[in-house]
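so my prof wants the structure for this chain in the tokens format not the other one, which i didnt know existed until like an hour ago. anyway here's the sequence
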Amino acid sequence: MNTKNLFFALLASMTALTATAQETYQDTKLIGNDLNGTARYVGMGGAMEALGADISVINSNPAGIGLFRRSSGSVSFGLVSQDGASSFKYGNKTNASFDQAGFVYSMRDGRRTFINFGFNYHKSKNFDYILNAASGLNGASQHKLSYMKALANENNLDKTSSGWRGKFAYTSQLDNLYYNTLMMTSSDGFFYNDASRYEFGRAETGYIGEYNFNTSVNVNDRVYLGITIGIHDVHYTGHSLYNEALVNLNNQTVGDITVNDERRITGTGYNASFGIIFRPVDASPFRIGLSVTTPTWYDLKTSNYTYLINNTKADGGGKLQGDYPNYTTGESYEFKLFTPWKFGVSLGHTVGNYLALGASYEYADYSRLDTRVNDGYDVDYWGDVYEHSSSDEPMNRHTRETLKAVSTLKIGAEAKVMPNLAVRAGYNYVSPMFKKEGYKDGNIDSYGSNYSSATDYTNWEATNRYTVGVGYTLGKMSFDLAYQYAQTNGKFHPFADSYLDYTYPGQDSNGNDVTMTESLDNYANAVKVSNKRNQLLLTLTYRF
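here's what i got, hopefully its the right format
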């Protein structure tokens, strides 16, 4: 067998997503933010970085907190609902959500100078989402994908084998499940099955909670400066079911397999944001805002529990094709993830006390996402322990080939139709983070490949968000309501598109030793999917 040619064939062609530690597609779940915060902020599409005076700009432009002239506290909650999803037992299409709670303490330091302190909690990411997909396979199969990797690994995908973490570093947990359940039998030897169709469902739940601490200054109502320290709290759970109807070489149904996978990611991270807002013309309310946010430095742990149920029979009936009816696996792994820098510029303008207009632009190069391996610990003279890490260069190279820079555009307006009543509207656009040719390379010599427990991926396209809102002030209390509709389309793949040409020793019809060649391919058509989200948000604010 020519394993070198096999390896490069697989390397060039595999395009599957694995829900795994330290893997590009899984890491993308933790970057970027939802449009969330106070109902006023959401109702204006998030375009308030230069306008300020709203607690939700505390991270995107900390200088906006400097525009508060009175102390205040607010709390936000609501409902999030998904359109078009089929029911899935591990998730709900509609969920209640506690989205924000914070306050600003404002102190006057001179006639036109203020020093403000703020704290805010908000849900920067809401993972609640149900994904359903199904299609025919026309002879391809997830089982066949593992078989092809087994050929490259010298017919060995067993994680109990000596050197599995090194020599067979890109062997995944799922490959191991197939190897021990279907691929190897005591009587029939080494084989694979094609499949006629698949069905897939995944429910994602959880959130990233962000805790922000801010100090800001208003200098003569002309220049505003701010800094925010952020702490991030990650709670992600993904539960998927993948079912494949298998056939034999005669295209006869032999049963099906079901892969049940549960993946959890937990951890914490921290970052800092810096911002400035200034009025170029003292007599004009027009404002320009600039901001920069450091990477978020995450310490994370991922764990999974995965099992394969084998419901296949031998061609003549009787025993299962594999030696075991089912097989389980599960591991945990700690790693680090450093997100890219983010830069922002914003404009804001008010007309009297009845109209506010805002526009914001943010830029982040997600191809610079840095996944890292924990190398060990150092202990200093005082007994303090310091953990150190290094970049996972093979996975980071794949990230640079798969992801790209993302631009976020926000525009919004607020009009006071009555002294105590305001109406709002906004639009929020986020460009795609995935390159059109983006793929998952299952042959990367990385822990990200090693800890894989699923084979699906989705290349999501641009996100469009449309918002409206209304606000009413009664004395020191404000009541704000916002509605948001967001849609992101994408293409779902159940497993890697792959091919291989390999050679092995054999004999011709005359019994002479010859080199035999066999070609295998494994292609699954992409399925269009969509994430359509509705949010209804209520904010209560009290001014001191």
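also thought this was worth mentioning. Residues 3-543 form a domain with the Porin fold (CATH 2.40.160.60).
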